[in-house]
Amino acid sequence: MKFILKYPVILFLTFIFSLFGVLQCQKNHKPLADDLNEVKKEILKNNVEFLRQTNELINLIEKESDQKNLQVKFENLRKTYKKMEWAVEYFLPHSSRFINGPALPEIEMAENVEIEAEGLQTLEEMLYPYEKQNKEEVIRLLKKLLNKNNTIKTNFLVISMSKDQIFDALRQEIFRISSLGIAGFDTPISGMSLKEMPYSLESIKLTIQQISTGKSQNSLQKINKEIDFANDFLKKNNDKLSFDYINFIPNHLNKISALLLEFKKDENIPDVEIISALRKNTSTFYSKDAFDPNAFTPGKEYEISPEKVSLGKELFNDNILSDNNMRSCATCHIAERAFTDGLEKSMSLQNSALPRNTPSLNYSAFQHGQFWDMRKDDLEGQSFAVITNKEEMHGDLNAIIVKINQNKKYNVAFKKIYKSEKTQVWHLQNVLASYIRSLAEFNSDFDHYMRGNQNAMTSQQKKGFNLFMGKAQCAICHFVPLFNGNVPPDYKKTEQEVLGLAVNSENKIADQDPGRGKFHETVAFLQHSFKTPTLRNINKTAPYMHNGGYKTLKEVMKFYNKGGGKGFGLHFENQTLSDAPLNLTDQETNDIIGFLKALDDK
Q: Among 494, 501, 457, 460, which residue's Cα sits nearest to residue 479?
């Protein structure tokens, strides 16, 4: 049985928290009106069909049907799921993970329990190709899928759905399509993503019609028209290798998401009162202020403000934070280098090389897990770890606070922000974190192109983006538009990868850094795993990888093109990167690198 491992995901939310979230979401919402119960009926109808198709697939496997027939039936099953995906993903996030989540086990951190991978993606690995010796295992997984399907029915029979929740779920679905869907995240082997997309879009179209009133006829007609245009485009070309992603996203998906916001205004639908990474009033993924950094803070008192950013910038560049007053945060995080230092390895206070490369701070606000090994949950914890590390800054936070309280300018600034007589340690951590949260400009040529400037990118960069999304499969790890491993559209989980990295670009000796595995020694699939960083400003951050062993983007692309460490014969049993060669030509590699330069902020 061949497994193509992709994305180890740490399960941060247990079933209890997921259920609690749904119940909280329902508070203060009026139940669905009788005439809107058509929405729930449609979900349950698709659920019945999903059940029938799953049983049909079990019967075909039991009767030794041929591989082609099994694959056709499986693809139909996936299309049926896509019709109800918007609802299942939103209202039953825990169940959806085990219906269509990545084909890798998860870890429930609180209990350190490994949870078996199951669902459609796991089944895809076993059906492409199908090997008859795996018959019983495939049937077992399909029967587990039946149980999850029954969970859908049971929950939607009792869940009270309101109009604002339904709209919010549909809006999330268009953003899911615009990131995970178009990249083929959940169909990495069969490559069915573009063929499935019309079913997801049609579900949005139907449900919007079901919740609409006479107030929104104009915007409703526009949405229907744009979805029809998008589906016509998809029917003409749904081959992921030749698909025109660079035009489809701004000319179709972005227009649909913008029209959904227009529909919301026409219908006077209120915002669902849940803090989310994607702002409720953003029209597209690529709007200037689409993302809210406050969704990644530890609490309301930690929210970003201009005053915190300004003070944090001063302290970031002040040697007061180090023990010997000779080093600041800016010593290793240089603004002109996208807040890296240009060195292979970070340098200690004693001027000796540390184990890893200095990561960029740009866009680090939009991830859960800081440092290459994700050992800190947020930027407040990151600043604490760096300042107190004896090899990096060797500072004592309590001593630093004394110095700050003795500094009139700083003392006044902290009092003004926090309304406290004395500056506290968390205040210092928060202003530093606030400054780092501000280092996300979304001002690249790519951003301007996606906002409508057709001349912002060169023809080479456009070709490179299409390769990035299609043949090179970069976007199934570096999700647009953040280009990091934080999973859209709710951005509650950050992924990490085992690339099978070598010590340098000669790709002859395996890197032995355990990465995240250092903190989870009993979890095999986390050994040598590292956070998937953003590719924004990557042109400025050489050398590359956690060990700085790859000096150029060309060397990085050569590594991926070969199939990671396994492609070079390095021994990594738990490599999550597919070891299948990408077969990119030199020109295609250059085109992708050209596109990556379009991610530089100006």
A: 494
Residue 556: name the closest of 570, 572, 545 by CA: 545
H/E run at residue 22: helix 15-26
- Average pLDDT over every residue of 519-528: 88
- The structural architecture, per CATH, of the domain 495-597 is Orthogonal Bundle (1.10)
Rounded to a whole number of angstroms, the distance between the first and last alpha carbons of the chain is 48
Q: Are the beta carbons of 317 and 329 closer than 8 angstroms? A: yes
| DSSP collapsed to 3 states, 153-197 | HHHHHHCCCCHHHHHHHHHHHHHHHHHHHHHCCCCCCCCCHHHHH
**Identity (one letter) of the amino acid at 328?**
S
Torsion 117-120-125-126 (CA) sign: positive
Region for 545 from its dihedrals, namely left if φ exceeds 0, alpha if ψ lies in -120 to 50, beta otherwise: left
Per residue in 531-570, pLDDT (tens digit) is 999 999 999 999 999 999 999 999 999 999 999 999 999 9
Q: What six digits make up the tokens of 23?
A: 């119940």
Every domain of the chain and the residues it spans: 1-161, 295-437, 495-597
Per-residue pLDDT tens over the stretch 232-273: 999 999 999 999 999 999 999 999 999 999 999 999 999 998
Bin 364: left if φ > 0, else alpha if -120 < ψ < 50, else beta. Answer: alpha
Give me the residue label for tokens 């590699």. 589
The closest of 212, 237, 230 to 33, measured between CA atoms, is 212
**3-class secondary structure, 65:** coil
User: Has residue 311 got a pLDDT over 80?
Assistant: yes
- What is residue 529's three-state secondary structure? strand
Element (H, E) at 598: none
Q: How many CA atoms lie within 13 A of 268 on its CB side?
A: 3
CATH code of 295-437, in short, is 1.10.760.10
Cα→Cα distances 140→18, 50, 119, 216, 478, Å: 26, 17, 11, 47, 32
Spatial separation of the C-alpha atoms in residues 194 and 540, rounded to whole Å = 33
Bridging pattern class, strands 113-115 and 106-108: antiparallel
